[in-house]
Automatic annotation (TrEMBL):
GO terms for molecular function: glycosyltransferase activity. The keyword tRNA-binding does not apply. This is Glycosyl transferase group 1. Residues 22-174 form the Glycosyltransferase subfamily 4-like N-terminal domain. One of its GO terms (biological process) is lipopolysaccharide biosynthetic process. It comes from Candidatus Giovannonibacteria bacterium GW2011_GWB1_44_23. Residues 182-352 form the Glycosyl transferase family domain. Keywords: Transferase. It holds the Pfam family Glycos_transf_1.
């Protein structure tokens, strides 16, 4: 049996999406018949739940936490994060001197400073890649990117096309394609049955590229028989939004929820919104949002910003698009999909069918097959 070590400088569990991806990929690698060990830093964490329980993953791989200096908890900004990352990578290098393994897998952009033979995921590119970035990418045995745009940029930077594979994110179908009606989901979550429910999941950063500000501007154009729900914000994000949204009676801000509850919120919705903004290269070309695949797996209709990154997965057969950054056009799209239930149902059905190919198991299988070649 092959041994894979996954190095991730991440606080696990975490309320952020990368925690889901890391844990689900480790689980999926194990399902490929590989012995997996996830190596993490030992950091302060307000979430005390066991990572396997938190993410609904079987305890079929090992998690090792290495000692580090938690500069991130001291709120030292980017310099603190960089210092903590270097300390963690040094600790990982020392730890692995005494380990036998076949595959070293990581998301760490400075891995090339400490390791020679590794595979890595690259989820975004810096505006001005440094020599250290390029050195890491050249040393990597295989590079996995989320979109073709990222692959093409790496090729332009001199990275061999033969070692780059486009590998979009994925979803656990069993967790999100749950057999429960919209009415049952609303009852479970104590939500009103008599309102049109428009849902967004993810962070609430107001002027971030994820487009929460565009969605909130659209909310102002709907009556109180509509309920817009934003699920997943931190306490700080919710606090920052309250003054901005105090007069919006048709808006409900819900903080971070356990991963296992999110499928019920999706099922309770009439429309799921993905309002990513243009103007950010991450948003336009590099992102492959986990929420996109979760939306698709829920069987609910999707309204999405018309961006190249999202078009890599979605077409007009699976979603209704609106002009990015345009709140008025988002209003139009939401009303259009609600006024045509037949079309909404067909879009949701098509999205659910397409997402069957985007499972964590398929993603891990493609990654291992690429590494072996």
């Amino acid at each position: 049996m092959k041994k894979l070590v996954y190095i991730a400088n991440a606080r696990i569990p975490t309320e952020k999406a990368h925690g889901i991806q890391i844990m689900k990929m480790c689980d999926a690698f194990t399902a490929q018949g590989i012995d997996v060990e996830l190596v993490l830093p030992r950091r302060l964490n307000n979430i005390k739940e066991n990572p396997f329980d938190y993410y609904g993953v079987k305890k079929n791989f090992k998690i090792t936490k290495l000692p580090t200096l938690d500069f991130i908890a001291l709120e030292l900004g980017q310099s603190g994060f960089f210092a903590e990352t270097l300390i963690f990578l040094i600790a990982s290098r020392i730890y692995l001197l005494f380990k036998n393994y076949d595959i070293l897998y990581t998301r760490e952009e400075w891995a090339g400073l400490f390791f020679k033979d590794f595979c890595m995921e690259v989820h975004s590119l810096p505006a001005r890649p440094s020599l250290l970035h390029k050195k890491t990418w050249r040393k990597a045995k295989a590079i996995f990117v989320l979109t073709s745009f990222t692959k093409n940029e790496l090729i332009k930077l001199g990275i061999s096309e033969n070692k780059i594979l486009v590998l979009p994110d994925a979803v656990d179908l069993a967790k999100f394609d749950i057999r429960i009606s919209k009415e049952e989901a609303r009852k479970k979550l104590n939500l009103p049955q008599d309102k049109k429910n428009i849902l967004y999941t993810g962070s609430f950063y107001l002027y971030d590229w994820k487009g929460v500000d565009v969605l909130l501007e659209a909310v102002k154009n709907f009556r109180e028989d509509f309920l817009f729900m934003l699920v997943g914000g931190s306490e700080e994000e919710i606090s920052n939004l309250k003054s901005y949204t105090i007069n919006l009676k048709n808006l409900k801000l819900i903080g971070h929820k356990p991963y296992a509850e999110i499928p019920y919120y999706l099922k309770a919705a009439d429309v799921l919104v993905l309002p990513n903004k243009k103007g950010s290269k991450i948003s336009e070309e590099h992102t492959s949002p986990l929420k996109l695949f979760e939306y698709m797996a829920s069987g609910r209709p999707i309204v999405a910003s018309d961006l190249p990154s999202l078009r890599e997965i979605l077409t007009e057969k699976e979603a209704l698009f609106f002009r990015s950054n345009d709140a008025a056009d988002l209003v139009r799209a939401i009303k259009e999909i609600l006024q045509d239930p037949t079309r909404a149902e067909q879009l949701a059905k098509n999205a659910l069918q397409k997402v069957q190919n985007h499972t964590w198991s398929n993603r891990a299988h493609r990654a291992i097959d690429f590494i072996n070649k």
